[in-house]
C-alpha cells in the first residue's frame, strides 16, 4: 500500500478495527458497514453461533454474491467466454461428526 492509503477506525460486530486501504475513508466505512450488517443478519437468524462462525457465514454469503455478480458480468460482457467457462465444482459436503462411543459398565 502507498502512503496515501486511507486510514479509518470502524466497528464491525462490536469489534473496533483500524483499517488502511486504497480509496476514501467513506468507502472503507461503507465496506465495514456492509460486513457489520451481514454479520448482524446472520447472528439474528442463529443467535447461538460464535463470532467466528458468524464471520465465516457472512464471508461465505458475500463471496457467493460476488461470484454470482461476476458470472452475470462475464455473461453480459463476454457471452462466448461465459458459455465456455465451466462453473466451479461444488465444495464437498462436510464430513459427519465422529460418533461418540459409549461403553457400558464393566463387570
Task: Give a structural overview.
By secondary structure, this protein is an alpha+beta fold. It has one domain (6-84). Helix content is 50%, strand content 13%. It has three helices and two strands. It has helices at 25-45, 51-77, 79-84, and strands at residues 6-12, 15-21. The protein has a two-stranded antiparallel sheet with strand order 1-2. α1 (25-45) crosses α2 (51-77). It is flat, with a radius of gyration of 21 Å. The termini are far apart.
Can you give keywords for this protein?
3 helices, two-stranded antiparallel ribbon, single chain, 2 strands, alpha+beta, 107 residues
Rg over CA atoms, rounded to whole Å, is 21 Å
The averaged pLDDT comes out at 83
Derived from helix and strand composition plus strand pairing, the structural class reads alpha+beta
Low-confidence spans:
none
The separation of the N and C termini measures 69 Å
Q: How are the strands of the biggest sheet laid out side by side?
A: 1-2
Content of β-strand: 5-15%
The global form is flat
The tally of helices reads: 3
Count up the domains: 1
> What percent of the residues sit in helical stretches (DSSP H or I)?
40-55%
The ordered string of helix (H) and strand (E) elements is EEHHH
Number of strand segments? 2
Main β-sheet: number of strands, strand sense, barrel status?
2 strands, antiparallel
Amino acid at each position: 500500500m502507498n502512503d496515501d492509503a486511507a486510514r479509518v477506525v470502524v466497528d464491525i460486530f462490536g469489534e473496533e478495527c483500524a483499517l488502511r486501504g486504497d480509496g476514501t475513508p467513506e468507502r472503507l466505512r461503507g465496506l465495514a458497514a456492509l460486513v457489520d450488517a451481514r454479520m448482524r443478519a446472520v447472528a439474528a437468524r442463529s443467535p447461538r453461533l460464535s463470532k467466528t462462525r458468524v464471520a465465516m457465514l457472512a464471508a461465505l454469503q458475500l463471496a457467493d454474491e460476488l461470484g454470482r455478480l461476476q458470472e452475470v458480468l462475464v455473461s453480459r460482457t463476454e457471452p462466448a467466454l461465459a458459455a465456455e467457462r465451466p462453473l466451479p465444482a461444488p465444495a464437498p459436503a462436510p464430513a459427519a461428526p465422529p460418533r461418540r462411543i459409549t461403553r457400558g459398565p464393566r463387570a
